[in-house]
Amino acid sequence: MSTRSFLRLILLAVGASIVAMMSWGAARFALFSSEVGRKREIPEETLVRLRGDDPVHVPDAGVWLAKRGGDSEVLALDDRCTHLGCRYKWNASPGQFDCPCHGSSFSIEGDVTRGPASQPLRRLSILRKPGENARLVDAPRR
Amino acid sequence: MSSASFSDFLLHLHPRTIPAPSATVRFTWCLGGLTFWMFVIEIVTGGLLMLQYVPTPAGAYHSVQRITHVAPYGFFVRNLHYWCGQIMVVLAVLHMVRVFVTGSYAAPRRLNWVIGAALLVATFMVDFTGYLLIWDDRSLWAWTIARNLAANVPVVGAQVASLLFGPEQVGDEVLVRLYAWHVIVLPAALTILTAWHFWRIRKNGGISIPL
């Protein structure tokens, strides 16, 4: 093999791998589908096990499930802070949701107790069918 | 340069022979060609971004956030698009300065100077509409200011403003209007003007050398 054809081969291989990597990235980007079509489901037993004043996070469904002490109704709150979309967490000692990013706080019902968030947490409706996972859908605005 | 480079399309894009001085890097600095390659990158990355961008007031900002922080390689595609867009403006201006300094705008290249000026304006406009499409606070106020400026044009101000920037009240129509300018009308204009610009170069006897 002559030096020239060897160098041409190397150049071709390098070029092909660069093109392949770029195409790989472009294809990953093009085929990405956002959470618009995401199935938000929770197992029935998660709902059954839920105790009052002790919210449970279901990260896969993107939801916090909460129940007030004596109440039987389950609240489903979208797990993203309404300020800039961080995932907030439950803080048991004052009994509120705290956002780690900018310090917003929400009551167990999702109302703002401290800014910078100005909108209450987004409530989801729970659709239950016997023998199936419960499905979460957007609730009409309060 | 043979006459075939005027009639044959491929030879016109890339003639067999060109005058030696027009290949001198220190004369042209490749500025026009580099501007063109920035435009090619903009077309490729812009085509990818179109797959994920949502041109509505409610969806635009969130889709940009999704592209930047969630979609695989989205940060890379978006930053390429953003920075090559910025660099394209800089290179176009530098190219214009170079053409001016070397006196390459003089006859018989006067028409090509005018086409180049139109290309510069189209580049500014495509850059500005891209800035608005992010639809964050800066975009909203830039849109408001630009729309008010356009509305101050005597006699036809209201028509110009609504043609360029959509209705006065922010709604879906506004972003669709800006999107149409950004992805269809202006890139098409840039493509046609660029082709004309390059053709005039050959027609006028090559890049910028004294005639």
Give a written overview of the molecule.
The complex is a heterodimer of chains A (142) and B (211). Chain A is of the alpha+beta class and 142 residues long. Chain A has two helices and ten strands. In chain A, the strands form two sheets. In chain A, strands 1-10-9-4-3-2 form a six-stranded antiparallel β-sheet. The longest helix of chain A has 29 residues, at 3-31. The N and C termini of chain A lie far apart (76 Å). The model of chain A has no long low-confidence stretch (mean pLDDT 84). In chain B, helix 6 (74-101) runs antiparallel to helix 7. Chain B is an all-alpha fold and 211 residues long. Chain B has helices spanning 4-7, 9-13, 25-28, 31-50, 60-69, 74-101, 110-133, 137-151, 157-165, 172-203.
Compact overview of the structure:
The complex is a heterodimer of chains A (142) and B (211). With 142 residues, chain A is of the alpha+beta class.
Question: In terms of structural class, how would the helical and strand content of chain B be classed?
Answer: mainly alpha
Question: What structural category do the secondary elements of chain A indicate?
Answer: alpha+beta
Provide the helix percentage of chain A.
Answer: 10-25%
Strand content of chain A: 25-35%
The radius of gyration computed from the alpha-carbon positions of chain A, rounded to a whole number of angstroms, is 24 Å
Mean pLDDT of chain B: 91
By oligomeric state, this entry counts as: heterodimer
Strand content of chain B: under 5%
Q: What is the makeup of the main sheet of chain B?
A: none
Q: Topology as H/E string of chain A?
A: HEHEEEEEEEEE
Tell the overall outline of chain B: globular
Report how far apart the termini of chain A are.
76 Å
Order of helices and strands of chain B: HHHHHHHHHH
Mean model confidence by pLDDT of chain A: 84
- The tally of beta strands of chain A, per DSSP, is 10
From the N-terminal CA to the C-terminal CA of chain B, the straight-line distance is: 14 Å
- Uncertain regions of chain B: pLDDT < 50 for 5+ in a row? none
> What is the largest interface, and how many residues per chain?
A-B, 8 and 13 residues
Our count of helices of chain A gives 2
Strand neighbour order, sheet with most strands of chain A: 1-10-9-4-3-2
